[in-house]
From TrEMBL:
This is TM0106 family RecB-like putative nuclease. It comes from Anaerobaca lacustris. The lineage of its organism: Bacteria, Pseudomonadati, Planctomycetota, Phycisphaerae, Sedimentisphaerales. Residues 84-223 form the PD-(D/E)XK endonuclease-like domain. It comes from the Bacteria. Residues 312-486 form the YprB ribonuclease H-like domain. It holds the Pfam family RNase_H_2.
Amino acid sequence: MTKRITAAMLYDAIRCPHRVTLDLFGAPADRDQITAFVQLLWDRGYAYEQEIIRGLNVPFANLSSLSGDEKEAATLDAINRGDALVYSGRITAMDLVGEPDLLRREGLGYVAGDIKSGAGLEGANEDSDGRPKKHYAVQLALYTEILEGIGVSAGRTPFVWDIHADEVRYDLDSPQGQRKPESLWDSYQKILDLVRAIVSGRHHTLPALMSDCKLCHWRTLCKKHVREAGDLTLIPELGRATRDAMVSTIPTIDDLARADIGTWTKGKKTVFPGIGPDSLRKFQTRARLLTHPDAKPYVVHPVDLPPANTELFFDIETDPMRNICYLHGFVERKNSGDPAERYHSFLATSPTPEEEERAFAEAWAYIRSRRPCTIYYYSKYERTWWRQLQQRHPAVATQQDIEAIFDRSVSVDLYFDLQGCIEWPTNDYSVKTLATYLGFTWRDQEPSGAASIEWYHRWVESGDPAIRQRILDYNEDDCLAMRVLLDGVRALTAG
């Protein structure tokens, strides 16, 4: 019997097609345990769904206690009766099976909807409300195709009820933008074809090293296979799509390190779609660093670092699910070479707007009290969040205040401002990887921002001081890691 295709398969295929392969054909013994953070995501998603369902003020068919064929039969009965709303139904057509959170009657047919504990759109900014999330869209499209298959579709405009209590319509037939005329339905059909090929064994997927790996239950197995294969995704900033464009010609990092890349270069282009000559040369440089046993980091371009008597190494912790910034941490150092340094933290004691504002205000007051100073942070995350916090809590600081503290003359983004200045013999350029390379170790055995979110959730519920300290220790270590990285960069520059 052919394996039926689910919405979860499509969701996973957007992020990692190899996960679909392993879920279908991998050995259960090779799976890692589900992380505490992933379990928290599931628990929160279920809790939010139940909260929404309890708040419905319209009659609906509740099929959540049923499963399998019984659930499907009950769903079809509800549709045939013309029920206005069906919760937790099951529908099938062809090789597709779906369990949408909601089926809502509109006119003579039904549209599908999902309850999501995240925002319904992504990429929102001052000029745009954002765009539909592709991994949500493919799920909704699968439900829509099934409704079309059984003859009860009210159109290709399913919806998401998101964490902001907004209903977000997904127009599956509309172009995704001026630069991307392809519709979400077109994208869905491509992903569906890919998953069908994986299910049938016609498409062979490869593991890849990527940021999402740390949350996957196949992470240990995939990392082992990637390293054994010398896969190109071991090269920093060379992702799955780039690897797939190159792998038939350049299978491994050893092959790339030894290659004469001029044979693949034609003027301002290469034979690899989407990869220019400069990128190809950069990837070869990094491949050579990774394959040379005695490779050392080196300076490519001069590093411009502003002088400062007071240095603040700044890191925040946020919970995207609650949309809150719950911790601002600083390691303060005087006179660069002075080993004396102090950690200062400003923690929201509860995930509320009032506590978020208090912690933000205290962190801002702390920065003002340390001026003149240079602030060091890693990537644009802190700046982006502080801009958002200013908009939420305008009484704390003005827009000009926020822009001033992140001005290049008094702050340094140790990722973007140093990008292209130094090459490192590492598989990525995260602060954890680079600081570890330079000899730093975190006190926690499994340090990550995701873990910190789960700790904060447990601390808010329990008030356990040990968990609170674990959160602060992790944040302090992130700040210290930036100090280690800065000193390492300075040493390279001096050398």
